Amino acid sequence: MDGFNTRAIHAGQEPDPLTGAVVPPIYQVSTYAQDGVGGLRGGYEYSRSGNPTRTALEECLASLEAPEDADARALAFASGLAAEDTLIRTITAPGSHAVIPNDAYGGTYRLFAKVAAPWGVEHTPADVTDPQAIAAAIRPGQTKLVWIETPTNPLLNVADIAAIADVAHDAGAVLVVDNTFASPYLQQPLLLGADVVVHSTTKYLGGHSDVIGGALIVRDSELGQQLAFHQNAMGAVPGPFDSWLVLRGIKTLGIRMDRHSDNARAVVDFLTDHPAVSQVLWPGLPSHPGHEVAVRQMRDFGGMVSFRVAGGEQAAVDICGRTDVFTLGESLGGVESLIEHPGRMTHASAAGSPLEVPADLVRLSVGIEDAHDLIADLDKALA
Ligand SMILES: *Cc1c(COP(=O)(O)O)cnc(C)c1O
Description:
Layout: H1 4-10, H2 52-65, E1 73-77, H3 80-91, E2 97-101, H4 106-119, E3 122-126, H5 131-137, E4 143-149, H6 161-170, E5 174-178, H7 183-186, E6 196-200, E7 214-218, H8 221-234, H9 240-250, H10 253-272, E8 277-281, H11 291-297, E9 304-309, H12 313-320, E10 327-328, E11 338-340, E12 361-365, H13 371-382
Parallel strand pairs: 2-3, 2-4, 4-5, 5-6, 10-11
Antiparallel strand pairs: 1-7, 6-7, 8-9, 9-12, 11-12
Helix pairs in contact: 1-2, 2-9, 3-4, 3-8, 5-6
Pyridoxal-5'-phosphate (PLP) binds at residues 79-81, 105, 107-108, 149, 153, 178, 180-181, 200, 202-203, 212, 214.
């Protein structure tokens, strides 16, 4: 099974040995009968520690991010932030330091600033487009974690994963890549030298705006064991039905990402020529400063597009209220197109911080509807 789509559909998902069901059942159960004390039938004792539906999801995720690697391990969580919290508390301790992106996902920034910092872990925001800036932010001996996203949210900056892996490893730090925006179909950070991949499976992996979930994927078996210990000890696991929804979404990830990318390309073409738009941010544009790196490390450029509005903040807010096919809302990565104003919505909590975003910015999560309907909708909203 070496094709991505074949693995997405089959990895971790043998037909049920008892009934032949071709899709893993939803094992909606908390505990498992034992044949005598310690006599586990299928290795399961309690669903916080392990559940067969969750195992199917975890095996599939490991296969997507690290194909053919027997040591690779994925762990599923109740949300992306639950995965991040478990990871931070596995790799850092009070007194340690992390480098984070200067335009990180707002919730990641809040987790470092309001939860990890009071616990004793300091952080420095750095420009992920510049490996030298990351190197300069590292505190030798104290920095345990270098955390990047690529492309970033909402500015769609691109980080050179392989170059930053070298910088992190030279300092003895672990490189974490939040791969939520690209998904494993477009980019596989573990194969470029990253140590940990983080996902909000809420987004492209689930893909249908109907579930909250998260995941961590690693190739080092010892780190995998430590994370699995914390997954059980901290307990932020997804339920069987949520695991099943994500697994179901993953089956169509490849074709969805192809369509998201194609539709984004069409929308970008339209926006680039529009007089009401002052700048379009998408890594697929040859003029994008990260384009060359994106070509090297991504299969295509994804469905996230941001643009700046010539008329300023109020004009940007007004555009967000004038679309019909694009739904005004937070989140991203579902089949339906979404529009939002990061400054007042997803990134409102970053106001006044180093992560503040431009007030005239609009962010699109371009869905998989017909491109001409999306363009007509934007044309009307920009008029
Ligand atoms: C949504 C998101 C998260 C957080 O995930 P939740 O599932 O909402 O907890 C983390 N990183 C990125 C890039 C995201 O878009």
